[in-house]
Amino acid sequence: xxxxxxxxVATRFNELAMQxxxxxxxxxxxxxxxxxxxxADSPYFGFAEGKAAVRKKGxxxxxxxxxxxxxxxxxxxxxxxxxxxxxxxxxxxxxxxxVKIDEIMLYEVADGKIISEQFLY
Length: 121
Known about the structure:
Elements lengths: L5 H12 L4 H8 E8 L10 E2 L1 H14 E9 L3 E3 L2 E12 L3 E14 L2 E8 L1
Parallel strand pairs: 1-7
Antiparallel strand pairs: 1-2, 3-5, 4-5, 5-6, 6-7
């Protein structure tokens, strides 16, 4: 099996992101020991490590979404072992009301898999 390059991973990520298939991204592209990092002061998310814990973090958030107003994701920018996309999310969320998040999503790739995702907002 050929190991995907960072560009290959970013390209596939983009294909799935444009379809809002975030759990498919996790299943297909994340390493078993992936880390998911949000800002320390985030009221929405925290830190998760391991594919199952990262998925649960996402599932718990999705369950709280009551209405989606707008979602956009940019094409990835690749540099070395990293790629980044900008993401804008505007939705109504249980416990928080209407939330708009403009963020940079930074991914690190090793051995053809995403080993970390960091959200900067």
